[in-house]
Amino acid sequence: LSFGQPVNDALRPLLDESIGLVGSLRDNAARIGAAVAGSMKTVVAFFKEFSAGEMGNLVLQSLSLGFKAGVNVLWRGLVAALAAAGQLLIEHFQNVITLFSVLATADFWKGALNAWVGVAKSFGAILLELLAKAIEQMKAIPGAGKLLGNADTALRGTAQTIRESASGNFAQSQDQLTPAFEAARNRFGQTLSNVGEMFGDAFTATKDLLDTSSEKSALSQAAARLQARQKATDAQAKAKEQAVSKAGSAGSSAPGPAAAPTAPAAKAGSVRIPPGAFASAINLIMGRSANELILDETKKQTETQRQMVAQLRQINGKLTPRPTSAAPAKPVLPVDTVARFA
User: Fold this and answer.
1) For residues 46 and 226, what is the distance between their CA atoms, to the nearest angstrom?
2) % residues pLDDT > 90 (the chain)
3) What are the start-end ranges of the H helices in the chain?
4) Which residues neighbour 70 within 8 Å (Cβ) at sequence distance 6 or greater?
5) At 78, is the pLDDT very low, low, confident or very high (cuts 50, 70, 90)?
6) Helix or strand or coil: residue 264?
7) Residue 296 — left, alpha, or beta (φ > 0 → left; ψ -120 to 50 → alpha)?
8) Are 218 and 226 in contact (CB under 8 A)?
């Protein structure tokens, strides 16, 4: 009990959660079963509708359609890539023209000049700052302070003025160069858009290299036959169900022996799952029957229990106290006192 109590306390939340999970999956079980049943009906209808020769022909038609469609896609891609390459070449020429038109504007060169002037002024301000630093260090020499005066402060003021002037040049340069940069950016975006549109138009307009109409027609006819077979099968099953229901209601109204209870009618919109459909689906998916899966799971649980019993025995053997010394030997009596009877 002391060993199993913490195990039980630890497993109880997991068991409660598992029970809740099974309850939430209960509603989905009917939908899953209906989907499996529908797939099984499709497979059964396929084997009933088509002979072995027709099945082989459909397989060949499918393979032929896949091969031809792949070749057509590659052909369209090749033609579209060539068209896009030609459009890209045209776009390059237009980009060069746009570049020359930008370079021919006065604002571009004014902006470039202001940028260079701003760079030169910034460099001059840095030199003045270095010179002011040197003068400041020279003031430490005896007698040099009076001679140099406030030269370092004046140089720093001049450097600040030049730096502010350089900021103005940079602002003017940005205003003058922004239209040129916008034109170049728009031209580049238009290039990508035109090349992409050319590729898409050429891919769509290119005709197929291989004709796939015969394969598509054969597969469409096969699909129509399969749908007709499924509709006929469903109609027969529904008619049979209605006949059984009418017979049951007539038998219950007439006097006589009690009839065997019939299964409740399916609700409107629900799908009836034929007996054994779920087990058959398990056989198809797993390659084994449901009984075999249950038997394997039972064997696994039994083996787990056997291992737990063996571990408990080992723990019990370690906890059982052993004698520290050997038991005393029985005394040997000189006369046999055991009663003897014939």
Assistant:
1) 6
2) 6
3) 4-49, 52-103, 106-138, 144-148, 151-205, 213-253, 277-286, 290-319
4) none
5) very high
6) coil
7) alpha
8) no
pLDDT in tens, 3-38: 777 777 777 777 777 777 776 776 677 778 778 887
**How many C-beta atoms surround the C-beta of residue 118 within 10 A?**
21
Backbone angles phi, psi at 336, to 5 degrees: -70, 120
Locate 249 and state its tokens: 């209601």
Q: What is the mean pLDDT of residues 106-112?
A: 85
Name residue 110's amino acid. K
On whether the CB atoms of residues 198 and 84 are closer than 8 A, the answer is yes
Of residues 116, 130, 108, 106, the one with CA closest to residue 166: 116
Half-sphere exposure of 216 (CA within 13 A, CB side): 6
List the single range of 51-65, 207-221, 256-270 with lowest mean pLDDT.
Answer: 256-270
Residues whose CB falls within 8 Å of the CB of residue 293, separated by 6 or more in sequence, listed in order = 282, 286
Other beta carbons less than 10 A from residue 135's beta carbon:
19
Question: What's the Rg (C-alpha) of the chain?
Answer: 47
